[in-house]
Design a protein that fits this description.
It is a single chain. The protein is an alpha/beta fold and 312 residues long. The chain has 2 domains: 3-202 and 284-308, Alpha-Beta Barrel (TIM Barrel); 215-281, no CATH class. It has helices at residues 3-8, 25-33, 47-60, 76-85, 102-107, 119-128, 151-161, 175-183, 193-196, 205-213, 235-245, 250-257, 261-267, 291-308; strands at 14-16, 38-41, 65-70, 90-94, 111-116, 132-136, 142-143, 166-169, 188-191, 219-222, 229-232.
Length: 312
């Protein structure tokens, strides 16, 4: 049996990214009920909102689901307490030191996965006791690694460096890409942008439409001096780019970002003033579709890719 499917007790080793403003209970439950692993994205939720999403997901989801937790979140203690109280059994962590919470979560029987963008932190995550690692390449949307290592390079490097299962992320939006990642040694995949555009995503329809409109070269990794994030090129991105070209300080960039830019763009649909986070694979997404349809196509494409490989 596949290592990731066995670890999480799911049918397919396909994990949905726990994306801020996109990954509510509707998306997480849809992914899990279709055989993958849905994740509630807690990074954009107040503690009691997270509890509400977990409880709603439990009511409609008959399969395992988890919560994604950015470790830099200001109310991290409250989030973790709610996750434990509500009996969530799978947690994906990112943007911080995995050693801080892994042992505490595992004491409560929770499977822990940490997101990394280089070999150094993959090794540290394994030493911290996580059950699996997400190796996220430069192509991914949202917050990203400074090294700009592509998924194609990152998977085999991390696979050689650790002994625990490796989940590939970044630039995966088709069954062909899943097959490529598995050929490189990945035990499973995490898909973000494709699910962000789905019918069940909690993102604003304006943002979903913008994802579909975004063409080749329509995103860029920005704010590397502050906290790297891949953005769609819109008027807000232009302001960021201009500030960076003018050698703006970290304080000036922080002031430019202000509060709630991602919410304004991704959840409220402001395509001018909002921060629009998405991966390079957005250029391949042509329409917003239900999760069930996405799964059907991913699986068909994956099987076709396997059967069409040409031997040397």
């Amino acid at each position: 049996m596949n290592k990731i499917s066995e670890l999480f007790k799911i049918k397919y080793p396909i994990i949905q990214g726990g994306m801020i403003w996109c990954s509510g209970w509707e998306l997480a439950s849809a992914v899990s009920n279709n055989g993958g692993l849905g994740l509630i994205g807690s990074g954009s939720m107040y503690p009691e909102i997270l509890r509400e999403h977990i409880q709603k997901c439990k009511k409609v989801c008959s399969q395992p689901f988890g919560v994604n937790v950015p470790l830099l979140y200001p109310d991290i203690d409250k989030h973790m307490a709610i996750i434990i109280e509500e009996g969530v059994k799978i947690v994906f962590t990112s943007a911080g030191n995995p050693a801080t919470w892994t042992s505490k979560l595992k004491e409560h029987g929770i499977k822990v996965v940490h997101v990394v963008s280089n070999t150094k932190f993959a090794i540290k995550s394994e030493q911290a006791g996580v059950d699996a690692i997400v190796a996220e390449g430069f192509e991914a949307g949202g917050h990203n690694g400074r090294e700009e290592t592509t998924t194609l390079c990152l998977i085999p490097m991390i696979k050689k460096a650790v002994n625990i299962p490796v989940i590939a992320a970044g630039g995966i939006g088709s069954g062909n890409a899943i097959a490529a990642c598995m050929a490189l040694g990945a035990d499973g995949v995490q898909i973000g942008s494709l699910f962000a555009s789905s019918a069940e995503s909690s993102a604003h329809q304006n943002f979903k439409n913008k994802i579909i409109e975004t063409g080749d070269g329509g995103t860029e990794l920005s704010l590397k001096s502050l906290t790297p994030v891949r953005l769609i090129k819109n008027p807000f991105y232009d302001l960021v780019k201009q500030a960076e070209q003018n050698c703006a300080s970290k304080e000036e960039l922080t002031q430019l970002l202000g509060r709630g830019r991602a919410k304004k763009g991704m959840f409220e649909g402001d395509l001018i003033e909002g921060e629009l986070e998405i991966g390079q694979v957005a250029s391949m997404i042509k329409k917003s579709r239900p999760v069930a349809e996405l799964f059907s196509d991913l699986l068909k494409e994956y099987e076709l890719a396997k059967s069409s490989l040409i031997s040397f």
